[in-house]
Amino acid sequence: MNFFAVLLLVFSILFAAPDAFAADKKGKAASKSEDPIVVMETTKGPIKMVIYKSEAPITANNFLGLVNRGFYNGLTFHRYEKGFCIQGGDPQGTGQGGSDKTIPLEKSPNLKHDSAGVLAMARTSDPNSASSQFYFTLDAASFLDNPPGYAAFGKVTEGLENVMKLRKGDKMTKVYVQGAEPKAKGK
Questions:
Q1: Strand extents, DSSP E, the chain
Q2: What is the CATH number of the domain that holds 113?
Q3: Number of domains composing the chain
Q4: Which domain holds residue 94?
């Protein structure tokens, strides 16, 4: 094969192949290889979730930084709303606490509250007040996408049945990035 034939073959593979990492036909985010999987061991069983670092880098990096510090280990879920959400991530366990920083609202058009198992950041009425509290949706909640909205940044990939069993007072025993050693509790 001559040089030009090889070059043509390489370009046709690179540019003619569909982008496997683009949004799917329904506009939902497709996971990219750099999107990590977080494992959350809870009193109701394990939950695995993809963190869409490629779609929501600020929000994902905030959450992953807290995971890597062991921040969530031992915290409780402090809010349960049947058919809506289960919320955790408050070190006080009251819904009033957070980490040592807040982040700006970051919304991606490909990340919607369109089903059970969406992972998103909780916040106050200030759109730029998200800190450490997060929630899992228990059903579609598209009204959360209305302006200003809430930052969805992940999706349950395994253990949705465990998410659905969580209630106020249940605990996150260990939360870690898959393939990384779980950290001890640290705020």
A1: 37-42, 45-51, 77-81, 85-88, 118-121, 134-137, 152-158, 172-177
A2: 2.40.100.10
A3: 1
A4: 32-177
